[in-house]
Design a protein that fits this description.
42% strand, 7-stranded antiparallel β-sheet, 20% helix, 2 domains, 8-stranded antiparallel β-sheet, single chain, alpha+beta, 245 residues
Length: 245
């Protein structure tokens, strides 16, 4: 009997450890849309995958970049030996759907995505605010990451030796329930709240270009799965003890 209790305790530890580890992974890992095909133009289109979810895009598309360095900047600029600023909270976005001018895109998902992240690159200039809104979807005020990008230096010192941090600011349209963000050479990540099978992104006014991508928290084993694993271990322990008896 004591051995059976010992096995139950060990299984409980396995379950609880796996559960808390899964929560840590959930908080720190994001899958980003991998755009496999993009057609540019005022009536452009695109398709890709977001983890196991299929994604399609239609609307104004200026281009696509598969270079994650768009999300990075050295200081001083253009010197790869210098450390990167991370405006993206360590979530490492990839791919950039590039926009210019005023327009919108509609994104469809083959299954529901929950609380998606939006990575934004070079939204606006220090002298021109550009607004992204998300069709009435609310932006979370509990998650926000931002920082400089490689283009901000062009407005100050071409050698990247002197930059103005206030130039890469942004404003929400509401302090409590924002539905849009206006950037002044802004780069960073915001998170929408809710469940989506369709998302519309509007951007205005005209500027040279800005970019975005969409991500979601990476899937992790559910607590119910961990519970089944724990119960299975308990069962194996009881069976082994009975055989020995």
């Amino acid at each position: 009997m004591k051995k059976q209790y010992l096995m139950i305790a060990i299984a409980g530890l396995v379950f609880s450890g796996a559960f808390f580890d899964s929560q840590a992974a959930f908080a720190g890992t994001v899958d980003w849309t991998d755009w496999s095909s993009v057609t540019t133009g005022a009536s452009g289109s695109g398709s890709g995958t977001l983890g196991s979810v299929g994604v399609t895009l239609s609307g104004a598309v200026f281009g696509v970049s598969y270079d994650a360095n768009y999300y990075k900047v050295e200081y001083p600029i253009n010197d790869p030996t210098n450390p990167y600023f991370d405006a993206y909270g360590g979530l490492n976005p990839t791919d950039v759907i590039r926009e210019n001018g005023q327009g919108s895109v509609t994104i469809n998902f083959t299954s529901v995505v929950h609380n998606p992240y939006i990575s934004l690159v070079s939204v606006g200039t220090p002298y021109l605010g550009v607004t992204y809104n998300f069709g009435g979807a609310y932006i979370s005020t509990s998650y926000f990451s931002s920082g400089p990008n490689r283009w901000i230096y062009n407005y100050n010192d071409p050698n990247g030796l002197n930059y103005t941090p206030t130039a890469y600011t942004s404003n929400f349209n509401s302090p409590t329930n924002p539905t849009s963000i206006t950037g002044y050479e802004f780069s960073g990540i915001i998170q929408l709240t809710g469940d989506f099978t369709t998302l519309t992104i509007n951007f205005n006014p005209d500027e040279e270009w800005s970019g975005f991508n969409i991500g979601v928290d990476s899937p992790v084993p559910e607590p119910a799965t961990m519970l089944l694993l724990g119960c299975g271990l308990v069962g194996l322990g009881i069976v082994r003890n009975r055989k020995k008896a």
